[in-house]
């Protein structure tokens, strides 16, 4: 039985000088990888809060006392550089696949003489913090991608944070329904805020409401990077991509839980050493949840590094033994020895209303396409799917 340890690290790898690629209505942006951990509980608190958000009841949405949470320890994050209005400040926004809201101002203040203050407050739950302010909290302004040759979205809805959180904000690429209940005026409770993908589509910058993500696993001595593509997918994956329909039904028949349409939900089955570990069931794909989670009833059967197979939409995706462990070259960052093995497949509380979360560690191994236009999620093997660099 292998021990499971939270991943701790403090590492920032930056990507500079990478040009944006724009062709056939595809917009491909470089992403900067940031891993920030400072203690044993940070990663667990991060993921636990993400999972809680997936099951938050509608009644909890609304104005509450502000909670300050040290979000400088945000786990693994990929950021995209943007400017807002005529502000000279460049914001490095975390790409979030489970929120449609883009917001700034938690580290560098929002300063711009352009834009329109809607006068409408917004409440955004992020981890265990609340971004909330009764004044100048929801604006419309231009959002310019710094590394995209001036590519800009006009009148983009942007939330301005009131709580200092230690990082610049979020770039929301999640389903539009994820913002339900965040607008706080009484007559706005049923309104939602579209993600940045929709605004690029509505302004004819892209042909389809699709966003694709590539994460490269950690390789010692190599600059790690990510890639974010709007409007479609990298053509190199054309023949490898396989899709599954997005699940939009309720987690449970109980109406208190939000519908899965608020997140990128899929159905999958998992086999382990060619024996069924988890039957065909429903869960979430989320790039901001760090680990790979399986409901505890199924996780109890997981006790060695056999091949995990994810059966999704008629296709089988292999998760080799190496993909199931923390990179050993970084063991010194988690107070481990060189040959220690720390697992990244973790147990999901039996109280959860979904059976699994395919988190960041899964997306490191498979190119992922979130396709709103056809309500589906796609996966493709990459050159790093079977790598043994960990």
Could you explain the architecture of this structure?
The chain is mainly β and 390 residues long. It is 8% helix and 34% strand. It has 4 helices and 24 strands. It has helices spanning 40-54, 196-202, 296-299, 360-363; strands at 10-13, 21-23, 26-36, 75-84, 91-96, 103-104, 116-117, 124-126, 129-131, 138-145, 152-160, 169-172, 210-215, 225-230, 242-245, 265-272, 275-285, 292-295, 308-312, 315-319, 345-348, 356-358, 366-371, 376-381. The protein has a 7-stranded mixed β-sheet with strand order 20-19-16-17-22-18-21. It has a 6-stranded mixed β-barrel with strand order 4-5-12-6-11-10. Strands 8-9 form a two-stranded antiparallel sheet. Strand 2 (21-23) and strand 3 (26-36) form a beta hairpin. The two termini are 19 Å apart. Residues 1-24, 57-74, 127-136 and 250-257 have low confidence and may be disordered.
Give a brief description.
By secondary structure, the protein is mainly beta. It contains 4 helices and 24 strands.
Residue runs with pLDDT of under 50 for 5 or more positions? 1-24, 57-74, 127-136, 250-257
Structural class: mainly beta
Report Rg.
20 Å
Number of beta strands: 24
Shape: globular
Strand order of the largest sheet: 20-19-16-17-22-18-21
Number of helices: 4
CA-to-CA gap between the ends? Answer: 19 Å
Mean of the pLDDT scores? 75
Order of helices and strands: EEEHEEEEEEEEEHEEEEEEHEEEEHEE
Which percent range fits the helix content?
under 10%
Which sheet architecture does the biggest sheet show? 7 strands, mixed
